[in-house]
Fold:
Amino acid sequence: MKFAIVGAGAIGGLLGARLALAGEDVTFIARNKNLAAISANGFRLIDEAGVEHHAAAAKAVGDAAEIGAQDVVLLTVKAHQVKDVLAQLAHLVGRETKLVTMVNGMPWWYFQGLEGEWRDKTLESVDPGGLIGRAIDPARVIGSIVYPAAELVAPGVVRAIEGNRFTIGEPSGERTARIEALSKVLMGAGFKAPIARDIRAEIWVKLWGNLSFNPVSALTGATLEAICRDLDGRALIATMMKEAEGVANRLGVTFKISIEQRIAGAEAVGAHKTSMLQDMLHGRPLEVEALVGSVVELAKVVGVAVPTIEAIYRAVKLLERTPIAERVPS
Structure:
């Protein structure tokens, strides 16, 4: 298959490198140092055992128009960056292209085609004015939940930290030929790629952790393990998860695991810095709206009180507005 990776960061790099190593045709849409490094040397992957693998066949372009429509586009940018790559996506997505959204948080397409009172509702927190929803054909979209942790250690070099599962699912809930083919290719590259019947419920399970651990870690500097092993930290996370569960339930989603099980899963990852904490430490924009603001907005839509989540949201928004020079440790 011809794959385009839009977002040559940690997760995009992990996916692209392994797919290229498995013999797939992989092109990164990249910029600046990443573009130069991949163009010159392909992509390098350092696996969990510390072994380096060289995906020499991986390519990179700065302009998607150079490669045109692809079989699969993996969208691995940050949630707030999606609107900035719409012009690139327009060149990559054709009539048969699968656009796999591997973006943290609540996706812009959550309500598209969803039966019920909120069908086709636009979430302003993730898609202000509905710009993304209008630009991307819903028929092309396949949902995905990203579970691995990885780190881009240098331009064109990614280190796998933990995990290899990417749950995928059609928003319609159907088990289509295209999603079975995608799952097979991902498994051939060494990933676990289960097909979910209800991808929205799976999104909520991942979001459950993101909406709580990410902002708390950014505000405190604590790792997943540290938060879970601190009594106050654990209690705060549990309270936020309980509030979010009320929102999800109102939307018809029932969690199959308990809050304690979800926290235990995060603790098992170890002393890992969440993506929001990493962004804060590196002075990058934070994924506040997709991970937390979207839940605050949904809570208002369905009429569920989320006072703790809202307080943390306001605090992390203040952190986001604080000049980088004042919030990044020297």
